[in-house]
User: Which sequence fits this backbone?
C-alpha cells in the first residue's frame, strides 16, 4: 500500500518540529535558570542595600551644629503622637500667641487642626484658646498679625494630598479667645499670604505667592481684610514662599524660596535651588533682584531685625553637594535643619543650627530686648532622619531662646555668599 508523499512529508515535518522543540527546550532551560538566578541575586542585593540604607537613615545620630552661646535654651511646647507643624508666634498685650497645625502627617488631609495657644510667661506654660478644622479640607501655614487692635489669623486652604494650597482665608479676634469663622480674602483668589509687617501701625505690607508657583507680589492694606497688589517681587524659577522686612534706611528686603525644578523638586530637588534676595525703595513698587544665594533654599522663612541688621530663620540643608539626587537643593532624601542666618545684600551668612532633624522649620518669633523667643517644629532630634521620613513621623513644636548679642558677634565673623 503506497503512502501519499504529501502526507509523509507532513508527518516528517511534525516529527522534526517536536524533536527540535524538545532539544531547544532542553538547551534553553539551563540558560533560563542561570538568568533567573542572577535576577534573584540582583534583586536580593538591591533589597539588602535599601534595607541597610533605610536603617542607616533611621538610626544615624543627629549631627546638628548648635552653637550653645547663641541657642541659650530649647524646650518642648507640643509633643505628642501627631505631626505638629507650621508655627507662627506674635506678642499681643502681655501674652505671646502661638498658632500651629496638628495632622497625621505632613501631607494634605482633612484631619488637620489649626490651634491657637497663649502664654503669659514666655513659653513656659500654654493654654489653648481656639481650634479651626474646616470640614473636608486641609488647613495649614498660619500667620498672625495685630491690625486695628485685633488679632488676625491668616491660613491657607488645601485639598491636594501633596499640599498645594489654593486660597488664603482669615479669622479675627478682639480678645484672643473668641474668634470669627474663617472667611476668604476678597478679590485675591489664588494668592497665598505670608506674614504682614508694618512700620507705622497703619499701613501693612505682605508678600504672597501664586498658588501655581512662579510669581510673588507685594500687597498693601490698612484693615487686614482688603489688600491690593503693589508690585511684583519676583517671577519665574517656581518662586514660592516669600518673606519681607524693612531695612533701617526705609527700603524693604525680601527673600524667596526658588525651587526651579517643578516635576522632581519634591523628591530629588534641583541643583539650581536657591534663596532670592531682592530690595525695593519706598513706595516699594519696583523691585531689584540682587542675587540668588546657594547657601540654602530658605523654606518657611522668618525675617527679623536686631540692631539694624536683618536675620532669618528657616530650613537649611547641611549636606548640600550639587552632585546627585541625594544632595541637590531641596532633595527629600537629604537631611534638614532649622537654622539662623544673617540676610545681607551680598548673600546669606549661615550662623547656627537649632536642634532639629527630618521635617522641620516654619518659625514664629518675638524679639524681647536682647533675646529672641522663637517656635519651630522638628522631627525627633535623637536621630538624623532625611526629610521624607520626617514627613511621616510625629513632629514636636519646640521653643528656643536666642542670645542676640552672641548672634551678632558671630555674624561679624562670617562672610555671606
Assistant:
Amino acid at each position: 500500500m503506497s503512502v501519499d508523499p504529501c502526507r509523509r512529508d507532513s508527518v516528517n515535518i511534525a516529527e522534526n518540529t517536536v524533536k527540535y522543540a524538545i532539544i531547544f527546550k532542553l538547551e534553553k532551560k539551563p540558560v533560563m535558570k542561570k538568568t533567573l538566578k542572577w535576577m534573584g541575586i540582583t534583586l536580593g542585593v538591591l533589597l539588602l542595600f535599601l534595607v541597610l540604607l533605610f536603617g542607616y537613615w533611621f538610626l544615624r545620630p543627629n549631627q546638628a551644629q548648635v552653637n550653645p552661646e547663641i541657642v541659650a535654651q530649647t524646650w518642648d511646647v507640643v509633643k505628642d503622637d501627631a505631626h505638629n507643624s507650621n508655627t507662627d508666634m506674635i506678642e499681643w498685650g502681655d501674652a505671646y500667641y502661638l498658632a500651629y497645625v496638628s495632622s497625621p502627617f505632613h501631607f494634605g488631609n482633612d484631619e488637620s487642626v489649626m490651634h491657637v495657644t497663649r502664654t503669659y510667661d514666655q513659653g513656659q506654660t500654654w493654654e489653648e484658646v481656639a481650634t479651626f478644622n474646616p470640614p473636608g479640607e486641609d488647613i495649614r501655614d498660619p500667620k498672625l498679625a495685630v491690625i486695628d487692635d485685633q488679632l488676625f489669623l491668616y491660613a491657607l486652604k488645601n485639598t491636594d494630598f501633596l499640599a498645594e494650597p489654593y486660597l488664603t482665608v482669615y479669622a479675627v479676634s478682639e480678645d484672643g479667645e473668641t474668634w470669627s469663622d474663617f472667611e476668604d480674602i476678597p478679590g485675591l483668589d489664588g494668592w497665598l499670604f505670608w506674614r504682614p509687617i508694618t512700620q507705622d501701625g497703619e499701613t501693612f505690607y505682605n508678600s504672597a505667592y501664586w498658588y501655581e508657583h512662579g510669581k510673588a507680589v507685594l500687597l498693601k492694606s490698612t484693615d487686614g481684610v482688603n489688600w491690593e497688589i503693589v508690585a511684583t517681587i519676583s517671577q519665574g524659577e517656581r518662586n514660592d514662599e516669600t518673606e519681607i522686612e524693612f531695612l533701617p534706611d526705609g527700603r524693604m528686603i525680601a527673600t524667596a524660596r526658588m525651587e526651579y525644578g517643578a516635576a522632581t523638586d519634591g523628591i530629588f530637588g534641583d541643583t539650581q535651588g536657591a534663596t532670592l534676595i531682592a530690595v525695593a525703595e519706598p513706595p516699594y513698587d519696583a523691585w531689584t533682584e540682587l542675587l540668588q544665594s546657594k547657601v540654602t533654599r530658605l523654606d518657611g522663612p522668618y525675617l527679623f531685625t536686631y540692631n539694624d541688621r536683618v536675620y532669618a530663620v528657616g530650613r537649611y540643608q547641611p549636606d548640600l553637594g550639587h552632585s546627585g539626587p541625594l544632595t541637590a537643593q531641596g532633595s527629600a532624601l537629604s537631611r534638614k535643619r532649622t537654622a539662623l542666618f544673617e540676610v545681607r545684600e551680598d548673600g546669606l551668612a549661615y550662623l547656627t543650627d537649632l536642634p532639629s532633624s527630618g521635617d522641620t522649620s516654619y518659625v514664629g518669633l518675638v524679639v524681647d530686648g536682647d533675646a529672641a523667643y522663637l517656635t519651630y517644629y522638628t522631627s525627633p532630634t535623637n536621630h538624623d532622619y532625611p526629610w521624607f521620613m520626617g514627613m511621616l513621623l510625629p513632629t514636636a513644636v519646640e521653643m528656643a531662646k536666642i542670645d542676640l548679642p552672641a548672634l551678632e558677634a558671630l555674624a561679624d565673623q562670617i562672610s555671606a555668599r
